[in-house]
Amino acid sequence: MSRRSANGSGGGWIIVFLALAVVGFIITYIVAISIMVGVVAVSWLVYWLIDRRVKARRAREAGAQAERAALASRAMRQHEAVLRGDPRGIYGAYLPAVFPEFGPAAMRRERPVPRLAMGRVPEAPPRRVVEPKGIPIQRTARPPGRRPAA
Q1: Beta bridge partners of 7
Q2: In this predicted model, what pLDDT tens digit does every residue of 47-105 receive, in sequence order?
Q3: Global model pTM greater than 0.70
Q4: C-alpha distances in angstroms, 78 versus 55, 89, 102?
Q5: Alpha carbons 24 and 26: distance in angstroms, whole number
Q6: What contacts 146, CB < 8 A, 6 or more positions away?
Q7: What is the rounded CA–CA span in Å between residue 82 and residue 104?
Q8: What is the pLDDT of residue 13?
Q9: Crossing angle between the packed helical segments 30-84 and 12-28, to the nearest 10 degrees
Q10: In whole angstroms, how far apart are CA 71 and each of 44, 61, 65, 84, 150?
Q11: Using one digit for the tens of pLDDT, what is the confidence trace for 73-89?
Q12: Among 89, 68, 70, which residue's Cα sits nearest to residue 80?
């Protein structure tokens, strides 16, 4: 008959057996375990990259929205200043040293039309038009075939 000690130290063999079983399991399935670890690592990396880009995009959008709000606010202030007749509505904070008469009357004032020596209004210069094929064609201000009114 064997004698056991009173403190119960006979459980050491069970721990050794379980450790050997775990080592055997790892050795048997090392390829599958490596593949699973790789898949988890790549999945985490992809998640981290996507999360980083989403956060950067949200920050850019928030900055753009704040910029648009500031622009709209400044435009409203300038519009209200124009309605009051304040020149800062047109020129902003940087008024010119000498600025023209300002007010509704100045805005409605008709400007003189430039005239040639004989009293005719100058014709618009001919425009260059590019046809769809990419060949530039010279076109005149009036359609061809019509004679100017005398």
Answers
A1: none
A2: 999 999 999 999 999 999 999 999 999 989 888 888 887 777 877 777 766 655 555 55
A3: no
A4: 35, 4, 14
A5: 5
A6: none
A7: 9
A8: 87
A9: 70
A10: 41, 15, 10, 20, 52
A11: 998 988 888 888 777 78
A12: 89
Residue written as token pair 């530039």: 136
Place of tokens 């400007």: 111
2 DSSP 8-state letter: P
Q: Which residue has the tokens 């390829």?
A: 31
Angle of CA points 22, 26, 27, to nearest 5°: 115
Q: Which token pair is 99? A: 């600025």
C-alpha–C-alpha distance, residues 27 and 19, integer Å: 12
What is the rounded distance in angstroms from the CA atom of residue 67 to the CA atom of residue 19? 63
pLDDT category of residue 108 using cuts at 50, 70 and 90: low
Helix runs in the chain, H state only: 12-28, 30-84, 88-91, 104-108
What is the four-CA torsion angle of 81, 84, 88, 90, rounded to 10 degrees?
A: 80
Question: 127: which strand partners?
Answer: 139
Name the phi and psi angles at 88, rounded to 5. -70, -15
